[in-house]
Backbone:
């Protein structure tokens, strides 16, 4: 691994790893000095196997203890403090490997909740939706982690393939454990995650609060409250923002696109309403945005 200081902050930096042994690798630390605040060019799945500490991420501090499991995205600056007998295992994985898993496990319950939505909305729910393994679950995962570590120390052609397979098994198991949690916060995130998945897969179609609350298996009032608490937006505002962002992406790829076509393409039936929402979210009208895109091409 290579370390590079931030230009204006010598107490923080960027950690680079070139993954010489495949698209995922395991790193185990027991009572070892931990890195200062940093970002990195990979994502990581973190397991706390013993002890405790404070996890500092995105200018927030959260206590962590044995059994905690969470994902750290590479662009989130983080570090640890107040370590007490900390035993931590990180599975580092390349972003493109994650994208392939995301396609493969798009229908796996718990996957998006743990790997996408929990990190994305962590500040909103104050890290209370992280996964916490019980002793039996931790023992099972520890066996896989041990196998992955042992395999990584073997220098032969099949090591990368075996470790990617073990990592896949670990991912499936932690998603299963996420479904089995008893505490309310992770359960609520899982339910809201199902609604978010539905919105993102069907944003071009008419979608109602009633439809989404049924998917989440919650009353409408509880669903709307929980959705906004987690995402910062109401369900319908989330849908509108997603449609506008997808329209902006489409217009960036095709600057000759008509505004009305962009509106219909993402599910709007009224181009005037589309223009109003586009300006509010993007900061300019669709026509102005298209002109900007055309000038960049020219």
Residues:
């Amino acid at each position: 691994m290579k370390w590079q200081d931030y230009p204006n902050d010598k107490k923080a930096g960027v950690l680079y790893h070139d993954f010489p042994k495949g698209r995922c690798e395991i790193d185990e630390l027991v009572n070892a000095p931990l890195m200062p605040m940093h970002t990195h060019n990979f994502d990581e799945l973190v397991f706390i196997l013993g002890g405790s500490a404070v996890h500092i991420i995105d200018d927030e501090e959260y206590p962590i203890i044995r059994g905690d499991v969470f994902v750290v995205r590479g662009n989130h600056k983080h570090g640890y403090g107040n370590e007490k007998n900390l035993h931590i295992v990180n599975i580092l994985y390349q972003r493109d490997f994650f994208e392939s898993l995301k396609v493969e496990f798009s229908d796996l319950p718990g996957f998006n909740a743990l790997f996408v939505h929990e990190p994305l909305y962590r500040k909103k729910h104050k890290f209370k939706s992280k996964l916490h393994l019980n002793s039996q679950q931790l023992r099972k995962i520890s066996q896989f982690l041990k196998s992955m570590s042992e395999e990584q120390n073997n220098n032969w052609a099949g090591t990368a393939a075996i470790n990617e397979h073990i990592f896949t098994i670990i991912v499936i198991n932690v998603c299963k454990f996420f479904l089995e949690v008893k505490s309310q916060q992770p359960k609520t995130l899982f339910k809201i995650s199902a609604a978010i998945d539905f919105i993102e897969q069907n944003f071009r179609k008419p979608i109602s609060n009633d439809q989404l609350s049924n998917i989440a298996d919650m009353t409408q009032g509880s669903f709307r409250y929980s959705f906004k608490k987690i995402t910062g937006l109401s369900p319908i505002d989330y849908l509108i923002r997603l449609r506008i962002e997808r329209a902006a992406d489409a217009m960036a790829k095709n600057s000759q696109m008509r505004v009305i076509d962009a509106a219909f393409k993402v599910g709007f039936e009224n181009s005037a309403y589309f223009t109003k929402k586009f300006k509010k979210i993007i900061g300019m009208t669709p026509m102005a945005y298209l002109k900007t895109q055309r000038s960049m091409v020219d």
Notes: The CA atoms of residues 42 and 95 lie 6 Å apart.
